[in-house]
Every structure is written in structure tokens, then in C-alpha cells.
Prior knowledge:
The structure holds two protein chains of two kinds. By secondary structure, chain A is an alpha/beta fold. Chain A is built from eleven helices and ten strands. Chain A has two domains: 2-77 and 174-258, Rossmann fold (3-Layer(aba) Sandwich); 90-157, no CATH class. Chain B is mainly α. Mean pLDDT of chain B is 83; it is low at 1-22 and 332-342. The chains are: A alpha/beta, B mainly alpha. The interface between A and B is large, with 47 and 36 residues.
Amino acid sequence: MLEAHRVSKAFGGVSALDDVSFRIDSGELVGVIGPNGSGKSTLINVITGFYPPTSGDVLLNGATIAGAPPAAIRGKGVVRTFQNLRLVDEMTVLENTIAGTYLETVAGGGLVWNTFAAVLGFRAARSKEKLAYEKATAALDAVGLHDKRQLLVSKLSYGDQKRLEIARALAIRPKLLILDEPTAGMGEAEAEELIGLTAALARDTEHSMCVFLVEHRLELVLQISDRAIVMDGGRIVADGAPQVVGADPHVRQIYVGGE
Amino acid sequence: MTMTAARPYTQQTPSRTGMIRTKVSAALRYGAPFAIAIAFLAPLFIESRLTMQVLAIAYINAAVVAGLVLSLGYTGLLNLSQGTFYGLGAYTTAILVTDQGFGFLPAALCGMVVSGCAGMLLALASARVKGDYFVLVSLAITIAVAQLIANLPDLTGGREGFFGLPEMSVLGLRFDNPTHTYYVCVLLLAVVYLFVHRVTKCFLGRAMLVVRYDDIAARSMGISPFKIRAFALVLSSTIAGLAGAVLVGTLQFIRPTDFDFNPSFMFTLYVIIGGMASLSGAVIVATGFAVLNEQFTTISDYRIGVIGLVVLAVVFTRGGVVRDTLQKLLRNRGRREAIRHA
């Protein structure tokens, strides 16, 4: 599915990612753990096109996506959430989720044509809007926000806003969902619930999707991942079954040291 | 909460899910046609030609402000050039109908194109400079165009203004008395309102709000912030150009001070007072201030001061004065309905 091949990223002279290689197979839930500054967020930014890699290559189903703009990568079904909330407070939960389908709406004809089709109420535009609505509703169902879809975002709890970020990413039915520290700032119980939701989404057989879960809660990630990757200082220091990675003394030392 | 969830899908057509503001939007859905009906019937009760003209110009101003809602209210560009786009549309139309012998309609279309191109220029600037610097560029364009208009007397009539402009005539129809031009202005506002309303309710309105809130989120969702800003500015400025053309046919006289920094600044304030992403709020505020301004000329000297006080009020009222007041008025009624449904 996704393959990173010897990816490095340096900012000026500072190396943030150093020769990182790994792969994600379809349907897998891969947990990425590591202390702050270990390169997890940089890795996400490189995969999703926010930063081009300094060297190395990222392949999606065998085709290179390294250096492509974020919109192109999203168009191929790779979506991400952010560590800090990036929602529109003035829109409802449903509207925020529908906004996630933007690329599909402007596909075929572009921005200007689709706007005039929508303003004039052409049938094609209406059916696109209806499809977007259905996808958004399904995504809200999946994260358990269905009953709150008409609320303004500002009325949601922090945990629900995090769920909404995930729903917005799910709205385009992605092939690979990248979650950047979804439980940051959450209490233990709330975090467990959200990680449980992540696992449920990854296990949903009806809609096969890979999940790339970047987290700092070691135990939670090990519990639900198919595979765990541990990063430190911009390198991958362990990659394997969660039990094996969890038992690795080197990993435990880094992790405890980073806490 | 469960009340809305239980509503069947057919009652929530997708186009309406756009920007549902529940009670407030329901009030406005019926409010806008009601307002148009009143505007249409008003001439039956108004005898003074002056009052008719004051209202007509208020509607034109409101249309300019409705256009600005797209770039400022939704996309978040502090655009201080809307009055300039308005003026470019007006002067282009005026020059073409007098010096070049154009018909009103083709001249108005050219006016819209010129304003739209000016909007595109400002959009190109928005790609290079952000935030405060964008405001400076916008301000520079406004001042430069106003100076140009004032200092090219052979082309524009200079500081004295452009006199003796012909009446509007479109496809053989002549609009040569205040009642006729009044109706043209009502039609202008209705069409612009409907257009802006539809834009804000469709995917573009949502994309604009995302861009206003967060560039990075927009990019991650495949929304190009530059394209959205550029499109919003072109739409805003083209609408202003159209309003400028109608002003030419309504007043038959334009002058540079109608399009310099002051009106641009006022248009911006109307959108802010109306509640940023609130089309109805902006239009109500713009119409109201335009009427007040003309009816009570003594106030107009203190205009900026009065507006300053209103802006202060806005700062302390989240979500805009108009929308908030409406919400407060409707809240009690909504509660009763909820009880009835329970």
C-alpha cells in the first residue's frame, strides 16, 4: 500500500528524518510511537505532501508520491488529521464534515464551473451535493457524532471535536488514514475511547482502510496495533509485532527516557 | 438534538444543509422574500422623488456590500478596495456610454469585466502578501485609483464629477423616471442577494470559511487557499462593478469621492457589523446606514464617529449585532416549539 524508501528530511543543517524506510500493507493498523522531536510529525508531513523529502522516495501502490502537492496526495486517498484542532467553529458538525469532500465536488469541470452549476442548481451539482451529504453522514455515524451533526462546532466537547476531525478525514472514504496524536490533551478514559474507535475503524471489513496512528501513549498503541514502529532522533529504532516491540529493552529505555 | 436527528432526509435537502442556522435562517428564508415584497410595494406609498432615489441608492450600496460578504465575510480577506471596484464599474460604464456611444448593457458588462480584472490583480497580490500586508496593498490600490480618477479630467470629469450621464436603457426598455430606476435597483439587490446566498450555501461557501479559518487545514483538504481567495475577490469585485453600472443609470452623475477610501472603509465596516459571514446582516446594515446617511445629512458629519461606536458594540457582541439580536428575539419562540415537539 504505502512504502517509504530511505526517506530523509533536513531543515537547514538539522536532520529531522534520517534514512527512514517502512511499509504499510492494506488493511493494517500501524502504530507509530516515539518521544517528542523524534520525527513523527515530520514523517506525516512528508507523506502527505506538506514537505518534500530531502532524499528518498514515498510510494503509494508502487507509484511515487514524494514531492506531490497535498491536494494530489489527498486525491489518491491519503488523508490526515492534525494534532491541534483545525475546524471551522462557525459551521455545524455536518458542514465541517461535508467540507472534507471538496476535492470530489470540484473534480470534473473545476472550481468555477462547479460553482456556477451549484448556484444555478443544475442536476449534476445537486447530485454531487447529495452524495457529499451521504458520505459525510456515514462518516459522522462511524465516529458516533450523528446526533450532534446540526450543532455548531463551538458547542462540542474537546473529545467530540477530535472525533469530528476524524469524520472529516473519513468523508472521502480514504485508503490510508493518518492520525497525528489524536489523543493529545485528552484524559485517560477519553483517550482509551478514541483509540478504541480508531481500532474499530481499522477493523471495519466493509470499507478496508489502513490506519497510521501516531501516538505517544505506548501501552494503548501496543494494545490495538497490528504492527508498531518506534522512532527516536529521526530514525526508526524498532519495527515489528507489538508484543516484540513492547518487550524490547531499548524501546522501553527510550520511551521512559523521553517521558 | 434528537428532534433534528429524527427529521427525515427529505426535509433536509442537501443544498439547505449548507449553512443551516436553524431558527435564524428559517426567519431569513421567509424574511428575504418579505423584504423584497415590501421594496416592490414601497413606491405606491412614497410620493417624494428624493426618497425614492435615496432608497434606490441604498439598495445599490447594499448590493456592493453583499458582494463584499464573499471576500471579506466568508474568505476573511480584509478587502479595503470594494469601493474602488464599485467606482471602476461606474466610471467604465460612464465613459463607454458617453464618449464611446456604447449601449447601457454592453457598457455595464465591460464595467463588470474591468472591476473583475482589478479584483484579480488584488488576488495576485494576496498570493504574495498576507494579513496586514495584504490590507496595505488593498489600501494602496484604493488610494491610487481614486487619485487617478480625480486627476484625469478629460476622461473622468476629474474632481468635479462626471455629469450628464444618460438614463439606463436595456433591450429597448427605457428606465427614465425615478420609479423605473427604483425597480432596477430592487432587482439588482434581489439578484445579487440570491447569487451570494447560493454561493455561500454551496461547497464554495464552506471552502471559503475553511480558508478564512485555517490555510493548513484547507490545504490538507485539497482546497487551494489562493484559488479560493482569488475567486472570492473576482466575484466580489464583479458584483461591485455591476452595482457601479446601475449607479450610473440611476444618479446620472458620479464623482470621485463616492469611490475613494471612505466608502470602501464603510463597506468593510458594514460587513463586520453585520456579523462577517452573515449576508442578511450585512445587507440590513448597509441599507440602514445608507438611508440614515442621506435622510439626516447632519448625522453624516459624525458618520465615522457613529460607526466607530457601533463597531465597539460589535466587539462586545460575538457573531454580529444583527444575527445576535435576531437570535435573542427567536430564542423564546424556538423553546416553545421544542416543547411542543417533545
